[in-house]
Give the backbone structure.
Amino acid sequence: MRRCESIRVLGGIVAGLRPRRLLVVAIAVIALLPIDISEAGWLPDLFKSSPKHVKPPKRAKSARQSTRPAKLARHRAPPKLHTTRLAALGPVALPPSVLKPSAGKCDPATFRIVLDVGHTAESEGAISARNVAEFAFNLRLARQIEERLKTEGFAETRLLLTEGKARPSLFRRVASANNLRADLLLSIHHDSVPNKMLEDWEFEGRKSHFSDRFSGYSVFVSRENPDFKTSLRFAELVAGEMKAQGFRYAEQYSQAIMGRDQHPLLNKEIGVYSYDELIVLRKTAMPAVLLEAGSIINRDEELKMGSPERRNSIAGGVASAVKEFCDPRWALFGPL
């Protein structure tokens, strides 16, 4: 396939992607298409409506100009390219650096992610505006994420259910995750607010509490995790997918009004916070992330969090984040 045809194919791919991935596309284009320095001017045309002509290659230098010491010529020789085939582009030449496995590359068939169901049946976590325990929300969502990941090829996904009271159960779940030799842990939760922010109301004749003041998801990591950098990388992928689904993140955790529940905001664009003291994030031997999928103390958002559609959207976002974590090329081309 000629290069101009390849450019048109890539232009179609770019047009169908979300804005946050355009930079990734540009990098992939540079890596996947062999171009001379004199032809590099075509790349910006992928992102413009009016095409430009590619500059012709420079004239060959005269014999006098080209007679340089062989040692210098060898020093400036371009890296050897290897040819491979992509479904849409035909054979292309890839530099050796592209063929090396990336730091986050993994095999979905053997990659093991543990989905930690937040809280326990004995210690149920927050109570929603309609008197439903957080544990019930966590379990339903975790099961849907587990099903989605296994459907996407991550057969080693494990659902982690823990028994017992709150604090002892935290250490048990960490020990269980470490014994499973997991590559990644994602702890599933649903959000509430501090008691001082709650208001009273009645639902179906029962006294309850609510707070419609705040809503949204949030993602947490611990800077004391043994692999904080990888934890943060996965957290940003999850939060980015949540935002791409059209969800807003909960901004209150960066505000002084939260008191001791205030946390540093590590990524203000997509809502990633640090929660350094959290045991399930700090003590695990693998990278760990906690997802507060949404607020169940907010009366409107509680209804949305209880819907299969919302759970399916979140499960799809998490699956996309895991695939990108394993191989960034998933974001562009799917499995290669």
Q: What stands out?
A: The longest helix spans residues 308-326.
